[in-house]
C-alpha cells in the first residue's frame, strides 16, 4: 500500500471540490461528524450493556447471602428528562429557526 503525500492529498481535495462543490463539503463533514458521534455513543452503550451483563452474571453465580439493610425513609426520585440524540436536537433547532424566519418575515411585511 503506497503512502499518500502532499501532492496526492491536494489532488484528492481538488477532485472532491470539483465533484461536490465548495458549499456542500462543510455540510458533508458535519454529517460525517454527527454520524461518528452517534456511532461512538451507541458502541459505548453496547459496552456498558456488556459490562452490566457480566456483573449480573457474576452476582448470580455468587451465593446469595441476605444482608440486613437499615430502614431508610422512602424518597421520591425525580425522573430525568429524556435525552435527545444529536439528530433530534438538530431537527428541533431547524424547526425553531424556520419558525423564527417565518415570524421575522411576517413582521417585515407588517412594517412595509
From TrEMBL:
InterPro entries cross-referenced by the UniProt entry: TatA/B/E (IPR003369), TatA/E (IPR006312)
Highest taxon above the source species: Bacteria
Skewed-composition ranges (Low complexity): 72-82, 99-112
Record's keyword annotation contains Oxidoreductase: no
Membrane topology: Single-pass membrane protein
UniProt keyword terms in alphabetical order: Cell membrane, Membrane, Protein transport, Translocation, Transmembrane, Transmembrane helix, Transport
Amino acid composition bias (Basic and acidic residues), ranges on this chain: 88-98
Subcellular location: Cell membrane
Keyword set includes Transport: yes
Region (Disordered): 43-112
Record function comment: Part of the twin-arginine translocation (Tat) system that transports large folded proteins containing a characteristic twin-arginine motif in their signal peptide across membranes. TatA could form the protein-conducting channel of the Tat system.
Known partners and oligomeric status: The Tat system comprises two distinct complexes: a TatABC complex, containing multiple copies of TatA, TatB and TatC subunits, and a separate TatA complex, containing only TatA subunits. Substrates initially bind to the TatABC complex, which probably triggers association of the separate TatA complex to form the active translocon.
HAMAP family: TatA_E (MF_00236)
PANTHER family: SEC-INDEPENDENT PROTEIN TRANSLOCASE PROTEIN TATA
NCBIfam families (alphabetical): PRK00575.1, tatAE
Annotated family: Belongs to the TatA/E family.
Name of the protein: Sec-independent protein translocase protein TatA
Organism: Nonomuraea angiospora
Species lineage: Bacteria, Bacillati, Actinomycetota, Actinomycetes, Streptosporangiales
Amino acid at each position: 500500500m503506497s503512502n499518500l503525500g502532499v501532492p496526492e492529498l491536494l489532488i484528492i481535495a481538488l477532485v472532491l471540490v470539483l465533484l461536490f462543490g465548495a458549499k456542500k463539503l462543510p455540510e458533508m463533514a458535519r454529517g460525517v461528524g454527527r454520524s461518528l458521534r452517534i456511532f461512538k455513543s451507541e458502541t459505548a452503550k453496547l459496552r456498558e450493556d456488556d459490562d452490566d451483563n457480566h456483573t449480573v452474571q457474576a452476582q448470580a453465580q455468587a451465593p446469595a447471602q441476605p444482608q440486613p439493610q437499615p430502614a431508610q425513609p422512602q424518597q421520591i426520585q425525580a425522573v430525568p428528562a429524556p435525552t435527545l440524540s444529536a439528530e433530534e436536537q438538530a431537527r428541533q433547532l431547524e424547526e425553531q429557526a424556520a419558525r423564527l424566519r417565518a415570524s421575522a418575515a411576517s413582521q417585515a411585511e407588517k412594517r412595509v
